Protein backbone atom coordinates (compact mmCIF):
# COMPACT_ATOMS: atom_id res chain seq x y z
CA UNK A 1 0.00 0.00 0.00
CA UNK A 2 1.14 3.52 -0.75
CA UNK A 3 1.73 5.63 2.37
CA UNK A 4 2.70 8.90 0.71
CA UNK A 5 2.64 9.99 -2.88
CA UNK A 6 3.70 13.22 -4.51
CA UNK A 7 2.19 13.90 -7.90
CA UNK A 8 3.89 16.59 -10.02
CA UNK A 9 4.62 18.61 -6.88
CA UNK A 10 6.27 21.98 -7.38
CA UNK A 11 7.25 24.75 -5.00
CA UNK A 12 8.33 28.28 -5.79
CA UNK A 13 9.48 30.97 -3.41
CA UNK A 14 8.84 34.19 -5.32
CA UNK A 15 10.27 33.62 -8.78
CA UNK A 16 12.62 30.81 -7.64
CA UNK A 17 11.29 27.34 -8.37
CA UNK A 18 13.06 25.13 -5.80
CA UNK A 19 11.04 21.91 -6.25
CA UNK A 20 10.40 20.98 -9.87
CA UNK A 21 7.65 18.51 -10.67
CA UNK A 22 8.45 15.74 -8.23
CA UNK A 23 6.71 12.37 -8.51
CA UNK A 24 7.28 9.92 -5.68
CA UNK A 25 5.51 6.99 -4.14
CA UNK A 26 6.53 5.77 -0.68
CA UNK A 27 5.21 2.40 0.46
CA UNK A 28 3.64 1.66 3.81
CA UNK A 29 6.26 0.51 6.33
CA UNK A 30 9.14 1.59 4.16
CA UNK A 31 12.34 3.37 5.21
CA UNK A 32 12.57 5.87 2.37
CA UNK A 33 15.27 8.54 2.06
CA UNK A 34 15.58 11.78 0.14
CA UNK A 35 19.27 12.18 -0.63
CA UNK A 36 20.95 15.11 -2.32
CA UNK A 37 23.39 18.00 -1.88
CA UNK A 38 22.61 20.99 0.28
CA UNK A 39 20.06 23.31 -1.33
CA UNK A 40 18.52 20.73 -3.69
CA UNK A 41 15.05 20.99 -2.10
CA UNK A 42 14.94 18.08 0.37
CA UNK A 43 13.72 20.09 3.38
CA UNK A 44 11.15 21.97 1.31
CA UNK A 45 9.79 18.64 0.03
CA UNK A 46 9.59 17.22 3.55
CA UNK A 47 7.95 20.39 4.88
CA UNK A 48 5.26 20.11 2.20
CA UNK A 49 4.53 16.54 3.33
CA UNK A 50 4.40 17.75 6.95
CA UNK A 51 2.12 20.67 6.12
CA UNK A 52 4.60 23.45 6.94
CA UNK A 53 4.64 24.55 3.30
CA UNK A 54 1.90 24.48 0.67
CA UNK A 55 2.82 23.19 -2.80
CA UNK A 56 2.61 25.78 -5.59
CA UNK A 57 1.12 23.02 -7.77
CA UNK A 58 0.65 19.27 -7.73
CA UNK A 59 -0.84 16.98 -5.09
CA UNK A 60 0.40 15.48 -1.84
CA UNK A 61 -1.47 12.33 -0.89
CA UNK A 62 -1.17 10.46 2.40
CA UNK A 63 -2.87 7.08 2.49
CA UNK A 64 -4.85 8.09 -0.57
CA UNK A 65 -6.18 11.36 0.88
CA UNK A 66 -5.25 14.69 -0.69
CA UNK A 67 -3.39 16.69 1.96
CA UNK A 68 -2.51 19.96 0.20
CA UNK A 69 -4.65 22.16 2.44
CA UNK A 70 -4.92 19.95 5.53
CA UNK A 71 -3.28 21.73 8.52
CA UNK A 72 -0.21 20.25 10.24
CA UNK A 73 -2.02 19.01 13.32
CA UNK A 74 -4.61 17.17 11.23
CA UNK A 75 -2.01 15.18 9.26
CA UNK A 76 -0.94 11.67 10.34
CA UNK A 77 2.70 12.79 10.29
CA UNK A 78 5.33 13.88 12.79
CA UNK A 79 8.51 15.77 12.02
CA UNK A 80 11.93 15.49 13.69
CA UNK A 81 14.68 18.03 13.00
CA UNK A 82 18.39 18.16 13.64
CA UNK A 83 17.74 20.64 16.44
CA UNK A 84 15.36 18.71 18.64
CA UNK A 85 12.87 20.99 20.31
CA UNK A 86 12.55 19.22 23.65
CA UNK A 87 10.90 21.04 26.56
CA UNK A 88 13.90 21.88 28.78
CA UNK A 89 11.85 22.25 31.98
CA UNK A 90 10.21 18.80 31.61
CA UNK A 91 11.81 15.46 32.40
CA UNK A 92 12.16 12.60 29.93
CA UNK A 93 8.82 11.01 30.82
CA UNK A 94 6.92 14.30 30.56
CA UNK A 95 8.55 15.17 27.25
CA UNK A 96 7.48 11.87 25.72
CA UNK A 97 4.03 11.99 27.35
CA UNK A 98 3.31 15.53 26.15
CA UNK A 99 1.31 14.69 23.03
CA UNK A 100 -0.67 11.95 24.78
CA UNK A 101 -1.67 14.34 27.58
CA UNK A 102 -2.97 16.77 24.98
CA UNK A 103 -5.23 13.97 23.78
CA UNK A 104 -6.48 13.55 27.40
CA UNK A 105 -5.50 9.91 27.61
CA UNK A 106 -5.79 8.09 30.92
CA UNK A 107 -2.71 8.21 33.15
CA UNK A 108 -2.28 4.41 33.11
CA UNK A 109 -2.40 4.29 29.30
CA UNK A 110 0.10 7.14 29.05
CA UNK A 111 2.49 5.38 31.43
CA UNK A 112 2.30 2.15 29.48
CA UNK A 113 2.82 3.79 26.07
CA UNK A 114 5.68 6.02 27.26
CA UNK A 115 7.33 3.04 28.97
CA UNK A 116 7.10 0.97 25.79
CA UNK A 117 8.48 3.77 23.66
CA UNK A 118 11.41 4.47 26.01
CA UNK A 119 12.24 0.80 25.76
CA UNK A 120 12.21 1.00 21.96
CA UNK A 121 14.75 3.86 22.05
CA UNK A 122 16.82 2.16 24.79
CA UNK A 123 16.09 4.80 27.44
CA UNK A 124 14.20 2.72 30.02
CA UNK A 125 15.07 3.98 33.49
CA UNK A 126 15.64 7.56 32.28
CA UNK A 127 12.03 8.66 32.96
CA UNK A 128 12.83 11.10 35.79
CA UNK A 129 15.98 12.57 34.27
CA UNK A 130 15.98 16.18 33.19
CA UNK A 131 16.54 16.37 29.44
CA UNK A 132 19.33 18.90 30.08
CA UNK A 133 21.39 16.17 31.75
CA UNK A 134 21.31 13.96 28.66
CA UNK A 135 23.90 13.67 25.91
CA UNK A 136 23.06 14.87 22.39
CA UNK A 137 22.38 11.31 21.26
CA UNK A 138 20.09 10.61 24.22
CA UNK A 139 18.19 13.85 23.63
CA UNK A 140 17.69 12.89 20.01
CA UNK A 141 16.32 9.51 21.12
CA UNK A 142 13.87 11.30 23.45
CA UNK A 143 12.74 13.36 20.45
CA UNK A 144 12.24 10.16 18.45
CA UNK A 145 10.26 8.54 21.30
CA UNK A 146 8.13 11.66 21.63
CA UNK A 147 7.30 11.58 17.92
CA UNK A 148 6.69 7.81 17.76
CA UNK A 149 4.46 7.63 20.84
CA UNK A 150 1.79 9.51 18.91
CA UNK A 151 1.75 6.60 16.46
CA UNK A 152 2.06 8.69 13.31
CA UNK A 153 1.43 6.91 10.00
CA UNK A 154 4.56 8.58 8.70
CA UNK A 155 7.59 9.87 10.58
CA UNK A 156 9.47 12.62 8.76
CA UNK A 157 13.10 13.09 9.77
CA UNK A 158 15.21 16.02 8.55
CA UNK A 159 18.93 15.26 9.00
CA UNK A 160 18.22 14.15 12.59
CA UNK A 161 21.77 12.93 13.23
CA UNK A 162 23.54 15.87 11.59
CA UNK A 163 24.64 17.53 14.85
CA UNK A 164 26.12 14.38 16.43
CA UNK A 165 29.70 13.14 16.24
CA UNK A 166 30.48 10.46 13.67
CA UNK A 167 30.61 7.49 16.04
CA UNK A 168 27.26 8.36 17.56
CA UNK A 169 25.81 8.96 14.09
CA UNK A 170 26.79 5.45 13.04
CA UNK A 171 25.27 3.94 16.21
CA UNK A 172 22.02 5.87 15.91
CA UNK A 173 21.76 4.99 12.21
CA UNK A 174 21.57 1.33 13.18
CA UNK A 175 19.25 2.10 16.05
CA UNK A 176 16.87 4.16 13.91
CA UNK A 177 16.77 1.34 11.39
CA UNK A 178 15.92 -1.12 14.18
CA UNK A 179 13.22 1.22 15.57
CA UNK A 180 11.71 1.60 12.12
CA UNK A 181 11.64 -2.18 11.61
CA UNK A 182 10.17 -2.91 15.04
CA UNK A 183 7.42 -0.26 14.84
CA UNK A 184 6.65 -0.73 11.13
CA UNK A 185 6.05 3.03 10.82
CA UNK A 186 6.84 4.58 7.43
CA UNK A 187 9.97 6.75 7.70
CA UNK A 188 10.88 9.49 5.24
CA UNK A 189 14.45 10.45 6.02
CA UNK A 190 16.22 13.49 4.61
CA UNK A 191 20.01 13.48 4.40
CA UNK A 192 22.88 14.84 2.32
CA UNK A 193 25.06 11.96 3.55
CA UNK A 194 25.19 9.28 0.88
CA UNK A 195 26.58 6.49 3.06
CA UNK A 196 23.83 7.16 5.62
CA UNK A 197 21.13 6.89 2.95
CA UNK A 198 22.65 3.73 1.47
CA UNK A 199 22.95 1.95 4.85
CA UNK A 200 19.55 2.80 6.26
CA UNK A 201 17.05 2.89 3.41
CA UNK A 202 14.83 0.32 1.77
CA UNK A 203 14.67 2.74 -1.15
CA UNK A 204 15.86 6.26 -1.76
CA UNK A 205 15.31 9.15 -4.13
CA UNK A 206 18.41 11.02 -5.27
CA UNK A 207 17.62 14.71 -5.72
CA UNK A 208 19.52 17.38 -7.61
CA UNK A 209 18.47 20.98 -8.19
CA UNK A 210 14.82 20.48 -7.24
CA UNK A 211 14.35 17.29 -9.23
CA UNK A 212 14.40 13.57 -8.51
CA UNK A 213 17.15 12.01 -10.63
CA UNK A 214 16.58 8.38 -9.64
CA UNK A 215 14.52 6.27 -7.24
CA UNK A 216 15.66 2.79 -6.29
CA UNK A 217 17.12 0.44 -3.72
CA UNK A 218 20.61 1.29 -2.44
CA UNK A 219 22.08 -1.45 -4.67
CA UNK A 220 20.24 -0.17 -7.75
CA UNK A 221 21.34 3.40 -7.09
CA UNK A 222 24.97 2.36 -6.67
CA UNK A 223 25.27 -0.38 -9.27
CA UNK A 224 22.83 0.94 -11.87
CA UNK A 225 23.15 4.71 -11.55
CA UNK A 226 20.80 6.29 -14.07
CA UNK A 227 22.53 9.64 -14.51
CA UNK A 228 26.05 11.01 -14.30
CA UNK A 229 24.97 13.09 -11.30
CA UNK A 230 23.83 9.99 -9.40
CA UNK A 231 26.95 8.04 -10.36
CA UNK A 232 29.28 10.75 -9.11
CA UNK A 233 27.24 11.82 -6.06
CA UNK A 234 27.02 8.26 -4.73
CA UNK A 235 30.59 7.40 -3.90
CA UNK A 236 33.32 8.04 -6.44
CA UNK A 237 33.35 7.10 -10.04
CA UNK A 238 35.20 7.57 -13.32
CA UNK A 239 33.04 8.91 -16.12
CA UNK A 240 34.09 7.85 -19.60
CA UNK A 241 32.44 9.46 -22.59
CA UNK A 242 32.93 8.81 -26.25
CA UNK A 243 31.69 7.59 -29.58
CA UNK A 244 30.81 3.93 -30.11
CA UNK A 245 32.23 1.88 -32.95
CA UNK A 246 30.46 -1.37 -33.64
CA UNK A 247 32.41 -3.93 -35.64
CA UNK A 248 31.04 -7.46 -36.12
CA UNK A 249 30.07 -8.61 -32.62
CA UNK A 250 32.20 -6.13 -30.68
CA UNK A 251 31.43 -2.56 -29.55
CA UNK A 252 34.18 -0.19 -28.47
CA UNK A 253 34.20 3.34 -27.23
CA UNK A 254 37.16 5.66 -27.45
CA UNK A 255 37.78 8.42 -24.93
CA UNK A 256 41.29 9.79 -25.45
CA UNK A 257 43.72 7.00 -24.61
CA UNK A 258 40.91 4.85 -23.16
CA UNK A 259 39.55 2.26 -25.54
CA UNK A 260 36.68 0.60 -23.69
CA UNK A 261 35.25 -2.67 -24.93
CA UNK A 262 31.53 -2.51 -24.17
CA UNK A 263 29.26 -5.14 -22.72
CA UNK A 264 25.85 -5.94 -24.26
CA UNK A 265 26.94 -4.98 -27.74
CA UNK A 266 23.34 -5.16 -29.01
CA UNK A 267 22.49 -2.05 -26.98
CA UNK A 268 24.81 0.13 -28.99
CA UNK A 269 24.74 1.64 -32.44
CA UNK A 270 27.68 2.64 -34.54
CA UNK A 271 28.45 6.33 -34.10
CA UNK A 272 26.38 6.98 -31.01
CA UNK A 273 27.79 9.01 -28.18
CA UNK A 274 27.60 7.32 -24.80
CA UNK A 275 28.64 7.74 -21.18
CA UNK A 276 29.94 5.03 -18.88
CA UNK A 277 30.60 5.05 -15.16
CA UNK A 278 33.47 2.90 -13.98
CA UNK A 279 33.72 2.47 -10.22
CA UNK A 280 37.26 2.76 -8.74
CA UNK A 281 37.02 -0.60 -6.92
CA UNK A 282 36.24 -2.35 -10.22
CA UNK A 283 39.59 -1.48 -11.79
CA UNK A 284 42.45 -3.91 -11.19
CA UNK A 285 46.07 -2.81 -10.95
CA UNK A 286 48.53 -5.04 -12.86
CA UNK A 287 45.94 -7.81 -13.21
CA UNK A 288 47.30 -11.37 -13.23
CA UNK A 289 44.86 -12.39 -15.95
CA UNK A 290 44.04 -10.69 -19.20
CA UNK A 291 40.99 -8.47 -18.88
CA UNK A 292 38.71 -7.02 -21.57
CA UNK A 293 40.16 -3.56 -21.13
CA UNK A 294 43.69 -2.44 -20.41
CA UNK A 295 45.40 0.94 -20.15
CA UNK A 296 48.82 2.13 -19.04
CA UNK A 297 49.02 4.59 -16.17
CA UNK A 298 51.34 6.17 -13.64
CA UNK A 299 50.55 6.40 -9.93
CA UNK A 300 49.93 10.10 -9.22
CA UNK A 301 48.63 9.98 -5.65
CA UNK A 302 48.22 7.38 -2.93
CA UNK A 303 45.61 7.92 -0.23
CA UNK A 304 45.44 5.43 2.63
CA UNK A 305 41.81 5.10 3.76
CA UNK A 306 42.11 2.29 6.30
CA UNK A 307 40.62 -0.82 4.77
CA UNK A 308 41.33 0.41 1.26
CA UNK A 309 43.79 2.56 -0.65
CA UNK A 310 42.56 5.15 -3.12
CA UNK A 311 44.94 5.80 -5.99
CA UNK A 312 44.79 8.59 -8.51
CA UNK A 313 46.25 7.15 -11.70
CA UNK A 314 47.45 9.40 -14.50
CA UNK A 315 46.79 8.18 -18.03
CA UNK A 316 48.46 9.29 -21.26
CA UNK A 317 46.36 12.43 -21.84
CA UNK A 318 47.03 13.66 -18.29
CA UNK A 319 43.62 12.76 -16.88
CA UNK A 320 43.33 11.04 -13.53
CA UNK A 321 41.39 7.84 -12.93
CA UNK A 322 40.35 6.80 -9.43
CA UNK A 323 41.35 3.25 -8.56
CA UNK A 324 40.57 1.70 -5.20
CA UNK A 325 42.30 -1.42 -3.92
CA UNK A 326 42.29 -3.34 -0.66
CA UNK A 327 44.82 -1.96 1.79
CA UNK A 328 48.25 -3.43 1.41
CA UNK A 329 51.31 -2.84 3.56
CA UNK A 330 53.27 -2.48 0.36
CA UNK A 331 51.22 -0.11 -1.84
CA UNK A 332 52.25 1.08 -5.28
CA UNK A 333 54.47 4.12 -4.93
CA UNK A 334 53.89 7.49 -6.52
CA UNK A 335 55.51 7.55 -9.94
CA UNK A 336 55.25 3.78 -10.48
CA UNK A 337 54.16 2.60 -13.93
CA UNK A 338 51.22 0.23 -13.83
CA UNK A 339 48.70 -1.36 -16.09
CA UNK A 340 45.00 -0.96 -15.25
CA UNK A 341 42.40 -3.47 -16.35
CA UNK A 342 38.67 -4.06 -16.10
CA UNK A 343 36.17 -6.42 -17.57
CA UNK A 344 33.46 -5.06 -19.81
CA UNK A 345 30.54 -6.09 -17.59
CA UNK A 346 31.53 -3.82 -14.65
CA UNK A 347 31.07 -0.49 -16.45
CA UNK A 348 27.67 1.11 -15.86
CA UNK A 349 26.08 2.30 -19.05
CA UNK A 350 24.52 5.68 -18.27
CA UNK A 351 23.17 7.20 -21.41
CA UNK A 352 23.46 7.46 -25.05
CA UNK A 353 22.83 10.47 -27.24
CA UNK A 354 22.81 10.51 -31.00
CA UNK A 355 25.26 12.85 -32.73
P1 LIG B 1 17.94 21.22 1.24
O1 LIG B 1 17.13 20.80 2.41
O2 LIG B 1 18.07 20.17 0.19
O3 LIG B 1 19.29 21.75 1.64
P2 LIG B 1 16.00 23.34 0.97
O4 LIG B 1 14.70 22.67 0.66
O5 LIG B 1 16.20 23.81 2.37
O6 LIG B 1 17.20 22.44 0.49
O7 LIG B 1 16.16 24.61 0.04
C1 LIG B 1 16.05 24.53 -1.36
C2 LIG B 1 16.18 25.94 -1.95
O8 LIG B 1 15.07 26.72 -1.56
C3 LIG B 1 17.41 26.68 -1.44
O9 LIG B 1 17.93 27.41 -2.50
C4 LIG B 1 16.84 27.59 -0.37
O10 LIG B 1 17.62 28.76 -0.24
C5 LIG B 1 15.46 27.90 -0.90
N1 LIG B 1 14.48 28.16 0.18
C6 LIG B 1 14.10 27.30 1.14
N2 LIG B 1 13.16 27.84 1.93
C7 LIG B 1 12.94 29.09 1.47
C8 LIG B 1 12.08 30.16 1.86
N3 LIG B 1 11.24 30.07 2.89
N4 LIG B 1 12.12 31.31 1.13
C9 LIG B 1 12.95 31.42 0.06
N5 LIG B 1 13.78 30.45 -0.35
C10 LIG B 1 13.79 29.30 0.33
MG1 LIG C 1 17.67 20.72 4.46
TrEMBL record:
Keywords: ATP-binding, Nucleotide-binding, Transport. Transmembrane segments: none annotated. One of its GO terms (molecular function) is transmembrane transporter activity. It holds the Pfam family ABC_tran. Residues 4-234 form the ABC transporter domain. The keyword ATP-binding applies. InterPro entries: AAA+_ATPase, ABC_SmlMolc_Importer, ABC_transporter-like_ATP-bd, ABC_transporter-like_CS, Mo/tungstate-bd_C_term_dom, NA-bd_OB-fold, P-loop_NTPase, Transp-assoc_OB_typ2. GO terms for cellular component: ATP-binding cassette (ABC) transporter complex. GO terms for biological process: quaternary ammonium group transport. Belongs to the ABC transporter superfamily. This is ABC transporter ATP-binding protein.
Amino acid sequence: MTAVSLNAVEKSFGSAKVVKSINLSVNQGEFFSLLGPSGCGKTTTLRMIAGLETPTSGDIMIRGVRMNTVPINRRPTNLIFQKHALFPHLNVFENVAFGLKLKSMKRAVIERKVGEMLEVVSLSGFEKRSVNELSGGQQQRVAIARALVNEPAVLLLDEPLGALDLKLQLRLQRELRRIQRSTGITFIYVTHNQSEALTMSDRLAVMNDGRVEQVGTPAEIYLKSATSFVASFIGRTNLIEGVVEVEADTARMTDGPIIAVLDEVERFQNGERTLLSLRPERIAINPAQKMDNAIDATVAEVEFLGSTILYRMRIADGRLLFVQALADSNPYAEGASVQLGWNRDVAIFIRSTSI
